[in-house]
Amino acid sequence: MKKLAPLLLLILFSCSSTKNVIDKNNVDPWNYSITKNLVAQKGAVVSAHPLASAVGVAILKKGGNAVDAAIATQLALAVVYPGAGNIGGGGFMVARLANGETLALDYREMAPSSSSRDMYLDANGNVVQGKSINGHLSSGVPGSIAGMFASMKYAKLSFKELIQPAIDLAEKGFAISEREASSLNSIQQDLQKYNTQPSAFLNSKGWKAGDTLVQKDLANTLKLIRDNGEAGFYKGKTAELIVEEMKRGGGIITLDDLKNYQVKWRTPHSFDYHGYTIVSMPMPSSGGILLHQMLKMLEDKPLSSYGFLSPQAVQLMTEVERRAFADRAEYMGDADFYKVPEAQLTNESYLKKRMNDYQPGIAGNSTQIKPGVLPMKESEQTTHLSVLDAEGNAVSVTTTLNNSYGSKTVIGGAGFFINDEMDDFSVKPGVPNLYGAVGGEANAIAPGKRMLSSMTPTLVLKDGKPFIVVGTPGGTTIPTSVFQTIVNIIDFGMSADDAVNKPKFHHQWLPDQIDVERSFPEATRIALQKMGYTIKERGSIGRTEVIKKIPGDGMEAVADKRGDDAAAGY
Ligand code: DON
Fold first, then answer.
1. CB of 481 closer than 6 A to ligand 1?
2. Atom number, ligand 1, closest to the C-alpha of residue 402
3. How far is the CA of 89 from the centre of ligand 1 (A)?
4. Residues contacting 353, CB < 8 A, separation 6+
5. Pocket lining: 472 vs ligand 1, CB cutoff 6 Å
6. Where are the domains of the chain?
7. Sign of CA dihedral 175, 455, 313, 512
8. Does 474 contact ligand 1 (Cβ within 6 A)?
9. pTM here?
């Protein structure tokens, strides 16, 4: 194994915040640095890992478009960012093509055919702790590979070219960062508990920065996909390995479930905000509708005059977040299975009325503020990547295993983590999931149904052209982080860098509290407490990746400071 001295690695992993471009996009798995912010002329990729961003830009330079780059970046993330990058999970892509067409691709996991509403409850009807989160039974049928193949319709290069960098990274290995080493160390016990087969991630001596992670099984799986297309995952050897793994650990995914997995092309959820067009993900993600509700509830309020992170601004934004999340709990779920009243939830007069009981200076209360009464019908792991290319194709992809390293189960012999996405269903009405979200009938488990998501891959268009490409991981904090990033740029006039990196906060109706990052200003915290809010400090919120067009030809690419996230461009 090739190893770097820790000191050298510190230097290599040192962050650069250099503006103006920079071509540090060569893909050297043992010698890479993290660029947080750059200005690119032709194209840029921002993702959770510098090697994955570099792979994306290499594909752009080779003549690929933003869709090619997004596919190659996702595949590379499945290798270099195993906690969330994946082939064993699912995701969403929102895109705006250079010809003006907008797309929303749903490759969310599906509940296995023998899943059932109460599958995570004991004989007394109580939730069995952890059953929907860890181990084989927590997995939905993965959609990522089907999603990548579906998006090939808009790609220019061959899939073989797009997957090769990932194969090389898996086969030859790459140097892991300090953050990845400590993250892998934190799951060693879980790996023992939820696996019977050896995997590349086990290390009895403990991982350290600079160690090389080689993933031979994963490389072989990726080669099967390269050589056999989608069938290299959903049929044949890989499918058999998945089903054998399920049988070893009490999982229920079958060969038929894999064979029957289907992506869905959806109509993007679009709306206007202060003259910009927002294009985001529809059901089964709550993201687009929540973003729509939150932005519209404050569009007629003098938010910018309150000032960024002022008590008035945070209160107003908290109250719109509260109301949107109350509606999420009651009304949202997979619209293929449950009639989600999308038009009513985003009806302008409904949203105006929703704010009638908003009282400036006085905290709202989630026992009184319930899901809205709708008008009559009118006729912590996920990862995000943003790509913008020279032709004006913009791609926003959020993909997930759900929790960090998903179910913590590695498919024996196939080398990849499988998701624990089933926990995103409401396993019992009113019982909070991993992210504290509650739900009911709309998001109950049913065979073939997709679990409600919060992932919000989003584009903001100005005069119909891409202006911002944005998204983030973070469970239920995703829609609020995207909301705040957009508001920071449009209403508070911030640079993309500040919009991403300044403190974030979050309210999701229940629990009735404002979560704030450590760096949230003390004076605002105290003022909000005086209004009656409960403030809860927490770790970082999201890892937002933004590309923002700047006047002229360029684009600013910003990777969140909260992780190893990196921008690359040329
Ligand atoms: O789809 C969802 O909403 C969740 N499974 C996302 C999980 C997530 O963002 C974890 N990241 N920190």
1. no
2. 5
3. 11
4. 372
5. no
6. 48-117+129-265+393-424, 267-381+455-547
7. negative
8. yes
9. 0.94
